Structures are given as structure tokens and as C-alpha cells.
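Before we proceed, please read the two lines closing this message. Let me know whether the C-alpha cells fit the sequence:

…
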Amino acid sequence: MIRDNRQDGSSFEYGGAMSEVGLLGMIAVRFPGERLAWDEKAMRFANHDEANRWVTPTYRAPWRFMG
């Protein structure tokens, strides 16, 4: 696609949203039976501090979050 200077099959907006849904689903399976309210503007769960730890995990030194 890039070599032919054509648009890709799906945009980043679509792929990014699909990735977000999948990753949030992986967090949700850790909390069965609990309601998780995702605040997409704040990029965190509005009602669940423990689930938020999976959104931005703590890394061991010397690794660190670059976001």
C-alpha cells in the first residue's frame, strides 16, 4: 500500500478504537461481575481504582512508562 501511494485498508482512527476495545476487554475479564465505567477523555476507569492500575502499570527499574 505505501509503495503504491494508496490509502491503507483501515485508518488509524478505526484501528486505534478497535485496539482500545480489545485491551479494555482484557482488563475487564480480571473483574468478573463488576461494572467498569470507562472515561475515554480521561483515559481511565471512573469508578474502579484497581482496574486503573492495569491501564498504566508500574514498571520495574530501569523500565518506565513513556506515555
